[in-house]
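Running this now, will post back.
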Amino acid sequence: MVKIAVVVLDTLRKDRFDEFFNWIPGCHFNAAYSTANWTAPAHASIFTGLYPREVGVSAKSRSLTCPEQTVAETLSNQGYDTIAYSANHNASAENNFDRGFNDFTGPSALLNPDDHVLDFEQFLSNSDKKGVTLYWKAVHECIFGKYDTIQSLKCGLGKAIGNKALQKNINDDGASVVASEITDRNWAEDTLFFANLMEAHTPYDPPEPYNRIGEAVEVTVADTFTGVDDVSRIQEAYDGAAEYLSEIYKEIFNELATEFDYIITLSDHGELLGEHGYWNHTYGLYPEVTHVPLVITNTDERQNQIVETPVSLLDIYQTIRDIAGLDQQRRGQSLINVDSLKPSDLLAEYRGLISIARERLFNTGYSDSEVQKYQKSMDALIGAEGGYWVFQDEQIVFPEDISETDVFDRLKILTEDLDEVQIDKEDEVSEQVRSQLEDLGYA
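Update: finished.
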């Protein structure tokens, strides 16, 4: 009998975690790395123990449709109660990240916790309609279904035009709802709990007194490359969001610690705040984006320990299986017994910009050749000894002007046995999905 909680603090940088989250007890992995620069592929690795390219999740396809079982599916088949709360549209039921969870609460429901408000993520994922027909069906459901018509229509309008303020009737991005709901919940003896908390993701808009800017601060894909006018304003807004996330997560963590045997706290990726001339996390594999916080807390012991061995988000899959008493499979290793960790080279990958991000750049005035430059794939090699290199076109592009001949061979060894799923057709971006991605700064 075991209860396992996995909480993703979306977009939280490692340095801000060290500053605001030093209250979390447990085993701190100081050299943990994501497998990608953004949510969908990173979560695919967490759920499957495979690299994003192996399960076909990339800028071309955000959906987790691979034939391999997710860890939630495996544990559900073992009799576990599997429960998830995701505030991120990229890790939602629409994109099949609800696989294996018998209770999955998505972004719309978290932003509108009233049961009488239509859950648009669930509605859209279950509908076979498209375009105008889908809009009319949604309006009909809001008016004639068992919902608060005004609030449901308001939420739907907010999604359609990308206005987050219209989409929600709470003062954060859903973490307060998670804190409230888990307090009243009865947990099964065997439980897998997952949560994605979006308070550190753009737009940075924490409640007072953490919002020292006085308004929501958005960073878009255009800002990624052109920069921002007020650097200190963006950084202060992000810091306020991270500080609020620490306070609300403290409530969640303390509640989970009363019931759960293990709590795994991590981020799926970080954020660029002007380093290397870039912003946001839509481009590249700089360590500010891939170096992530990771703490595993055994709530019976709560012993603090620092581990410097490089590890990957791939390892979360194996770690959950190990806690559940299941045999090891796929890539990565369990992180429970740190004395038995085997240092190894690790991989992170970048596979271009999503289609509406490219569209936004075109509309901003970028030429086709400029946009194509940002479409080039990259791989990052995280060395077993702690080195970090980013490759593009068989060249080291980070750190610049540094060439170490053996790392090319190490990258080849690491990638040569990876079967990359070929995406023949890029995901269609509906108006609903477009508004969601624009709201998250991906366009």
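The chain has a mean pLDDT of 90. More later if anyone needs it.
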